[in-house]
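Budget justification note: compute hours in this period were largely spent on complex prediction jobs such as the one shown. Inputs:
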Amino acid sequence: MEIRPILNALLRNKIGPLLIALQIALTLAIVTNSAFIIKERSDYVALPSGLDEANTIIAVTTDFGINLDSKQLLQDDLNHINAMPGVVAAFVSHSIPVSGSGNGQSYAPERDTPSNETISFGNFSGDERALEALDLELVAGRNFRPEEISWRTLDEDPPRKAVLVSQALADALFPDKNAVGQLVWEDRTTPEPSEIIGVYDHMQNAWPSSSFVNRTSIQPFRDISSQDRHFIVRTHPGERDQVLTALEEYFSAERGRMVALIRTFEEQKQRTYSDDIAMVKLLTGVVIILTVITALGIVGLAWFSVTQRRKQIGTRRALGATRLDIMRHFMLENWLITTIGLVLGVVGALALNWFMDTQYQTGRMPLFYLPIGVIMLWLLGQLAVLAPARRAAGIPPALATRSV
Amino acid sequence: MFSYYLKLALKSVRRTPILSALMVMALGLGIGAFMTTFTVYYLMSGDPIPHKSDQLYAVQLDNWDPNSPPTQSAKDIQPQLTYVDAEYLMHAATPASNQAAMYRTGAIVEPEGDDQAPFDGNTRATYHSFFAMFDVPFLYGKPWDMQADDRRERVVVLSRAMNQELFGGENSVGRSVKMNETAFRVIGVMDDWRPTPRFYHVDSGGVFSDAEDFYIPLKAATDLVLQPRGNVNCWLPPDGPGLEAFLRSECVWLQFWAELSDEHEASEYKQFLDNYVRSQKDIGRFPRPLATFISPVMDWLDIQEVVSRDNRVLVRVAFLFLLVCVLNTVGLLLAKFLGKGPEIALRRAMGASKNDVFSQNLVEVCAIGILGGVLGIGLAWLGLQLIEKLYRGYQHLVYLDGGMLLTALALAVTSSILAGVYPVWRVARLTPAGFLKTQ
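Corresponding output:
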C-alpha cells in the first residue's frame, strides 16, 4: 500500500510518533527482560522436591522439660503417628528438604581425597520408614533394616555404617561404577567409612539455591542431641488436613515439649520460595500494567491525530478513498511507528539484559524472547489503533465541504 | 493571577476528563511503582546505627580449609568466628574500647500462670559490652556487668515488647523468667530498639525483622547447651560428640564486633588480630595464608549483600516503567494542548503574551503532576502493603516516612514538568492567525 504519503504525514509531525516509538522500545525492553526473569523463577519454583508434596506434613517439636525422657518420647511418638488413621508413613529427621535450613556434609570416595575434591550434599537422618514417608523410589540396593538405626545423643555419635544416597549424589561420587556396595568417607576424622546400601531416585536438599540441590543422603540414625525433632509425615491422598489437626492435638498433649511449627509441605515450599514467588508476581504486575499504559498511550495519540486530521480525512473520502482505505492508513501508520520502536526496543532489550546480567547476575536472556515480544507488540499496536482508525473511517466525506 | 491560572487549569482538566484521567493515572502508576521499590531499597540500604556506624567493626579471621580457593577480600571468607577465637579476643587486652561475641539461639519460655502456653523465645547470647557498644536504650534496670559474664550468672535483659507480654509493661527488674525450665532474673528492660537492618547478625534469618526478645550472658547460654540458631559452618567437624568438642572445634558460629574510635585504633586492632593469628599458626591452627578483616557497619552490609539483588532489579525496572509513563504523559499532553490551539489563539489575540500562555499551561501541567503524585503516594502505600504480604520479615521496610512522601511529590512534579515543558512550549509558539481564521 501507499507507504510514502503515510511517511510524509509522519515526518510532518515527528514528535508524537517518536514518543510512541520510544514507549514501544522501552516496553519491549522491559517486557522481554521481565518475562525472562518470570520464566526462570517459575521454573525454579516448580522443580520437584521428590516428596509427595500434596500429601506431606512437616512438624518441628521442641523438648524443653529437664526430666523428659526424649528417647522414650520419640519412640512413642513414632509408634503413635505411624498408627494414626490416614498416615502412610512418618519418621523423624534432623532436617527437612526445601526448608531453607538443614545439615550439609561431604563424602569422599577415597580416604585421602583432598578436601576440595570431596562431594557436598545435604544429609538427612532417618529410619526404615524414611523412603516411604518421603515417597522415594529405590533404584538400586536395599532399604535400611530396623536394627541398623542408631541414636545420636549429646554424648554419643555412633558411626553410620550403611547409608542411602540420591542418584545425583551416586553419580557425582562414582561416575563410572555402580554406587551400591561402595565405601564413602564423611571426613578425614571419621575412622570408619560408610557403605552405600541403596540409591533412591531424587530428593532435593534443604537449600534449593545451592549448587548441589539434588545431592542428598539418608543416614540411619535418630537425632536427640538437640531439643528439636523434625517430623515428616506422609498421608493418604485427601487426608492430609485431618491428620494435621490430629497431629496438632497429639503433640500438644505432652507437657515439657512444644510444637515449634506444624504445616503442610506445600506451605513450607511457598515460604522457602517466597522471594521468587514475590518476584514473579511483581514482575507479572509490571508487565500487565505497562502493556495497558502503552496501549492507552497509543489510543490517546491516535485519537488525537484523527481529530486533528478530520478535514484531511474528509477530503480524502470526498476524493474517492473508501472507509477501508482510511482505516488502512491509520493501521499502517501505527505499524510503521511500532516497527521503528521495536527496532530500537530490540537493541534496548539486549542492552538491559546485558546490564542486568553483569550487575545482578540475572542470566543471559535467550534470543527467542525478542521475536515473541515483537509480535505481541505489533498485535498490541494494531489492536490499540483499531478504535481510533474506525472513528476516522466514520468521518463523512461531506466534512471536506464544511467550514473552509 | 496564579489563582486565575489554577481556575483555568481545573476548567481545562474538566473539559477533557478522560485524557486528563489517563495522564494522572499514568503518572500515578509510574510514581507508585517506583516509590514502592525505591522505599524498600532505601530502607534496606539505610544506616542502622547512624551516630556510630563508622566506629563499629565486624571481625573476620580466615581459619578455613587450606584447600579452598585463596582469599582475596572479606567476601571470600566466613562471616563468623570460632568459639576459641571469640573467647580469646573477649579476654585479651585488645586496643578496642568495646568488643562483644554473640550468637542467636532460642529457649522455651514458660510464662507465669497456668493459662499461658509456653513459647519459643527468640534469644541472643552475648556479653555485657553488647549494650554499651550498640547504645541500646534501657527503660528499666541496666545491662549486666563483667562479673555477671564471668560468673555465668543467669540474668536476662528483655525487649520492651517482651516485658509488655510477660509482665504487662511494669518494671520487672528482679523478677524471674523461666527459660528451658531454668530461672533467669530480669536485670534490665530495653526501650524500643530496632536497628534496621539488624546489622550485627546478617544471615538468612530475617535481617529486617525484630531484634531478639531475650538477651542472656553467653556463658549462661552454653551452660544450658542452648544451640545456635544461625548458620554453623565447619570445614573440620568437631573431634567428637558433645558440647566440649563443639566449643573447641574449628566450626564458626559466633558474630564478633569491636568498637574502634578512630583510624589509629582500627589499625592497631588489625595489627593485634594479625599477631594473634600468627601465634596460632605456631600451634598448627590457621593453615591458610594470613587474612584478617575488620569492616565498619556500612561496608559490612555491602559485603554481606543485605540489599537483595531482586530489589535492585525491581528498582531499575520500576524506573524504566516510570520513564514509559512520563513519555506517555508527554504524548498525551501534546495531544491535549494542540487540541486547545483555537482557545490559545483567542487568548493570544486578546493580548496574552507567549509567556502568559506558557505559564498558564504550566500551571495546568503542575496540577496534573500533583494529582499524579498524590495518586502515586496512595499506590505506593498499597504497593508496600503488597510487598509486606509477598515477602516474609519485611514488616519494617514498608512504611513511607516524611522524606519519602516529599520525594514522591517532588518526583511527581518534576516528572510532570519534564513531561509538560515541550508541549507547553510548543503550544505557546503556535501562530494565532491560522486558528482564528477557521473559527
